Amino acid sequence: MLRYDFKNAAGVHCISAGFSENRKLGLQQLVVQTYHFSHEQVKSSNFELDAGNCLDCPFSFNSGNGSCYTHKGLINFGLKSMLKRLNKNKPKEFDQQEFDNFLRKVGKMKIDLIRFGAYGEPVLLGETIVQSLLSLNYNKFTGYTHTWKRTDFQWAKDYFKASVHSVSQLALARSLGWSSYLPLEKPEKIGVLCPNDIAKVTCSDCGLCNAKFKPDIIAKLKYQ
């Protein structure tokens, strides 16, 4: 696995490239994933201090009800292990030369999927780093954000889906120029139904959950 860890004013970030063991993403697919922790989480090794990295998510611990799927099972175990590593080996400030070296190494590979925000808000990377990752040799990419109402993150509508939680929120996001990802208990035909829900198509083969694909994605509510 290749990895670049760094910190900036927005938080502590881990960008990794490796082979997936996740069936939904696609087994043994080469996946680049970004993870975003708050400074408070890393300093104290307390996973629940997530207001700084999960921001407006209603399923975070500090900004919502704590029911995010990343708080459960093996995913949670892996994230806490990552947090423990970041606490023990504190990342340095972002270094352009080190990041460029990481990009050169990963650039020699054929990436099946770039997954922005495997944990935390991908907008915290900033648009320049997002663009740099999208300059790699990749097949598909995905990304969502709960910050779609915020004026300081409107740049992200060119890359990520708005993560919404009701039909009325979807309509509001559309009015602001976003395409959305909406999980529903009973999916309605108001967008494209998630191919993984219909036929177990992997994210590596699908890749529709980004702003380049304009229609909204409607998925089965599974995690909250």
Mean pLDDT value? 96
Integer-rounded radius of gyration: 17 Å
Order of strands in the sheet with most strands: 1-2-3-4-5
Query: Terminal Cα separation, in Å?
Result: 31 Å
State the total count of DSSP E strands. Answer: 10
Largest sheet, described in full? 5 strands, mixed
Q: Number of folding domains?
A: 1
List the helices and strands in order.
Answer: EEEHHHHEHEEEHEEHHE
Estimate percent helicity: 25-40%
Describe this structure in words.
The protein is an alpha/beta fold. The chain has eight helices and ten strands. The chain has helices spanning 39-44, 51-54, 73-88, 96-107, 127-133, 167-175, 195-199, 203-206; strands spanning 2-8, 11-19, 30-37, 111-119, 138-142, 144-145, 161-163, 180-184, 192-193, 217-220. Strand 7, helix 6 and strand 8 form a beta-alpha-beta unit.
Brief overview:
The protein is α/β, with parallel strands linked by helices and 224 residues long. It has one domain (2-163).
Descriptive tags:
10 strands; five-stranded mixed β-sheet; 224 residues; alpha/beta; five-stranded parallel β-sheet; 8 helices
Please outline the helices and strands:
Blueprint: E1 2-8, E2 11-19, E3 30-37, H1 39-44, H2 51-54, H3 73-88, H4 96-107, E4 111-119, H5 127-133, E5 138-142, E6 144-145, E7 161-163, H6 167-175, E8 180-184, E9 192-193, H7 195-199, H8 203-206, E10 217-220
Parallel strand pairs: 3-4, 4-5, 6-7, 7-8, 8-10, 9-10
Antiparallel strand pairs: 1-2, 2-3
